[in-house]
Structure formats: structure tokens, C-alpha cells
């Protein structure tokens, strides 16, 4: 059954689903996670990955305005957003955008159990835990998956998105990011999922944009990537995104 976490700033209690320690991103476990979190109806899914602590002072405000711009489109499409769920970087910005615009789309954070500051026995009670990440209070749902390190959630993020969509549109949006973001993207490309990169946001996003546009290599990605994967990637400059992104998101998710 879903467990109530701390109330978010909209006064709603997020649903927290804690996966079995031996669960894996296979159909039965994915269905258990979605049912446990109260997410039983197929819907389009936007996957957001990127910078947590490495966003520049100019990029963060631009991303917030961008997320506020697309929030009404996500509501109109009946979509959900999946990200890493912590109170940092792009995840916190999406939570803030949802709250500030009064949007109602499910905002689902997926994180490894061993890295977040939560009492597994009493998830409704916030805890102080040095070295562990706080969950973002503006998210509506959390799925905590097995793992003690960042990156353990990457296959779950992609698999949960596809299981929730069940044939509806999906799109991964990449802004800035580092090593874990590269891992998220590679998992997505291996499943044939489409990826939209915000060039000019820094980090992994800029490296992916260079790879897509110029064929510049992607070292240290850990998997083979080639032309088939490049074709799944689209690039939009952050400066142009307020005008372009709402239509791109709608086109990708309106299936």
C-alpha cells in the first residue's frame, strides 16, 4: 500500500512506495510500484534528467521559466513527469514550477532507497541524515527502489516511464547533468526512447548536443552508441526553448 510522506507545499501528501529490496525493473515489480503509488492509468510521460548541484546561476532561472511554460501543456495532455525526486537542481525546479503554476500533473520521483533521507519505517516523518539527499516536497509521488548509490535508479526511471505510458508518448528531457545523467540517457537510448537535449544548459546536455550535431565522441558512457542512437536524439538550444519546447513536448507526448 502507498505510504504518506511529508506534506508538500501545496498541502498534499505525496505517496511514497518503497520497493522490495530484491525488486528489479521487470513487469511484475513495475506494476507493483505503480499500483502501490496509486498510478494505475496509462498516460504520456516526460522524463526529466540533468543537473542536481551543478546548475549555473544563469541556467537555473532559465530552466524554471521553461518548466513553468510547459506545465500547462503537460496538464492539458494528461501527462506525468518522472525525475530523480530530490530537492536539488532540475528536480526541485520542476517541483517549484508545478507549484507556482498550479499544475496538477503527477510529478514522480524515483530514487535509490539507500541515498535519500527518509525513515523507511515511518516515511511520514522527515529525518535529518547527514550525507543523504532530501526528497523534494513539491513532488506528488515517490518510488524508492533498491540501491545504495546514485545510478541504481537509472534503469527504473526508464522502465517505469514505459510501463506507465503503456504505448502513450514518452520523451526524455536533458538539462545539464554529469555522470549519472549520461547513465540515464544511455538506458533510455537502449530502449529506443526519444531524447531531447537542451544545448547551452551545460554538462552532459552540451556533450550530447555536440555528439548529435557533429558526431563528437562520447567517452565513458559505458555502452556502445552509434547512428541508431544518435537518430533518437534531438537538440534544442536553451535560448530558443521557451518558444520551441512546448510544441516539441506536445508533439512527442500527444500519442
From TrEMBL:
Pfam assignment, any one: LSDAT_prok
Residues annotated as domain LSDAT prokaryote: 43-213
Record-given protein name: LSDAT prokaryote domain-containing protein
Species in which this protein is naturally found: Thiocapsa rosea
Amino acid at each position: 500500500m502507498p505510504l504518506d510522506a511529508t506534506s508538500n507545499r501545496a498541502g498534499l501528501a505525496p505517496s511514497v512506495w518503497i520497493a522490495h529490496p530484491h525488486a528489479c525493473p521487470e513487469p511484475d515489480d513495475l506494476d507493483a510500484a505503480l499500483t502501490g503509488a496509486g498510478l494505475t492509468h496509462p498516460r504520456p510521460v516526460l522524463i526529466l534528467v540533468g543537473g542536481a548541484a551543478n546548475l549555473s546561476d544563469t541556467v537555473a532561472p532559465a530552466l524554471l521559466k521553461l518548466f513553468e511554460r510547459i506545465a500547462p501543456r503537460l496538464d492539458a495532455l494528461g501527462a506525468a513527469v518522472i525525475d530523480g525526486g530530490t530537492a536539488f537542481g532540475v528536480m526541485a525546479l520542476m517541483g517549484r514550477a508545478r507549484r507556482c503554476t498550479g499544475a496538477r500533473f503527477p510529478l514522480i520521483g524515483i530514487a535509490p532507497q539507500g541515498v535519500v533521507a527518509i525513515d523507511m519505517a515511518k516515511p511520514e516523518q522527515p529525518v535529518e541524515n547527514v550525507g543523504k539527499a532530501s526528497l523534494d516536497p513539491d513532488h506528488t509521488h515517490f518510488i524508492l527502489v533498491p540501491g545504495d548509490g546514485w545510478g541504481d535508479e537509472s534503469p527504473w526511471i526508464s522502465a517505469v516511464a514505459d510501463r506507465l505510458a503503456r504505448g502513450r508518448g514518452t520523451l526524455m528531457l536533458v538539462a545539464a547533468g554529469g555522470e549519472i545523467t549520461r547513465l540515464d540517457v544511455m538506458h533510455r537510448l537502449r530502449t529506443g526512447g526519444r531524447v531531447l537535449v537542451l544545448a547551452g544548459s551545460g554538462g552532459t546536455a552540451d556533450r550530447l548536443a555536440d555528439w548529435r550535431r557533429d558526431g563528437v565522441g562520447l567517452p565513458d558512457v559505458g555502452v556502445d552508441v552509434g547512428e541508431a542512437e544518435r537518430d533518437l536524439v534531438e537538440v534544442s538550444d536553451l535560448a530558443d526553448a521557451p518558444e520551441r519546447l512546448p510544441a516539441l513536448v506536445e508533439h512527442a507526448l500527444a500519442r
